[in-house]
Design brief:
The chain is an alpha/beta fold. The chain folds into two domains: 172 residues, Lyase, Ornithine Decarboxylase, Chain A, domain 1 (Beta Barrel); 243 residues, TIM Barrel, CATH 3.20.20.10. The chain is built from twelve helices and 20 strands. The strands form three sheets. Strands 4, 13, 14, 15, 16, 17, 18, 19 and 20 form a nine-stranded mixed beta sheet that branches. α2 packs parallel to α9, α5 crosses α6 and α8 runs parallel beside α9. It binds ligand LLP.
Length: 429
Amino acid sequence: MDAFYYKENTLCCEDVKINEIVSETGTPVYIYSKNAILSRFNELKTAFQEVDTTICFSVKSNSNLTICKILANEGSGFDVVSGGELFRALKAGGTPSKIVFAGVGKTDKEIQYALENDIFMFNVESIAELEHINAVAGNMTKTAKVALRINPDIDAKTHAKTTTGKKENKFGIDLIVAETIIEKAKSYKNVNVCGLHVHLGSPIYSVDPYVNALKKITVFIQKCRKTGIDIRYLNIGGGYCISYTGEEVIKPKDYSAQILPFVKEMQCQVITEPGRFIAGNSGILVTSVIYNKQNSHGKKFVICDAAMNDLLRPALYDAFHRIWPVNTNIAMPDIEAPDQCEVKQGMELVDIVGPVCESSDVFAKDRAIPPVNEGNLLAIFSAGAYGFSMSSSYNSRPRPCEILVDKDKYFVIRKRETYEDLIAGEDII
Ligand code: LLP
């Protein structure tokens, strides 16, 4: 977590103290490091540089316009899953010919919007969708480039709710159905099947699932080519892991070392759709302690002003995020995993919770942290991906502001929502 570090007992992002930002913005606040975003994008780019690769940042992980613009300026394309995400990618200056569109339920309206903007290609998830794309493109006298999203029935060994490549998942097309599509692909006059796509889930902490999927897909590409369908693009999805605990995890070059031989053998151009890897550890959520509370059973709660509506991952997936005071003379342990939480001297075991009226509104259970008082700040780490983008205003809580740090400067890149924002668009009848 190099962009975020402690100096003189206080947390900094690049060359800015978190306290300084909070004194202006208040809490809760998302804070991102521009340098971290760029360096992760470039780490991935370097890992795949041996082959012709288009990196399409997965907009769902962090859809802030400034973040997307920074990546667009660096040459990134975008992976979108809705008309709204496409709108954002275009607003951020995304190059249409580098935008890929996935998702199991694209509507005709969304398909038309994407075709009007001449996106790179659709990642198609069913025969019905392919037929709709063919019809919409036909009405527009256009040809849509498509990749078939293959569901290879491979277990990515990640959380059940973020696994996408198993036969029971709604995503993609299994290989038997894909074969039937290939057989009649030429009859779709306004569709050009020129790619295959696979996304197995997220985060994936080993290369094996990618390799196992690519073994199946390589065989399938050969079949396609025999039928006269020239597969030129291989979209290997996203899913690259990050460390949430401080432990070492595999790196982009570990993935690419095993993925690239398949790509080279198939002589395909690569598309990849990283989200978490770029944004995850590039951002934190900072919250203030509202109250300390202890029940007669000895259980201690730290109640803070961020909640599950601001960062849903712990409530939805029991996800582990490191949490530590912004100002403390006790060093954050190098590694801290759910089963390795140690209560050292001067620390206490607490549940860190938000004010939302749900028992799942818990950021951390039985977590050892230095004692904190009302008004103290806590940093929730690894919150840059699937943090703000999954936020809501549940309990009518205005969503936090977002800040981008660039060296010794910081910028508000999304204002804090107001009560008026909460009711904008509502009419009393
Ligand atoms: N491509 C496709 C087709 C996807 O569905 C996703 C993520 C990605 C790429 C990007 O995956 P990444 O590189 O970020 O792992 N909300 C969950 C994660 C859901 C991911 C959904 N799809 C979380 O907070 O962990």
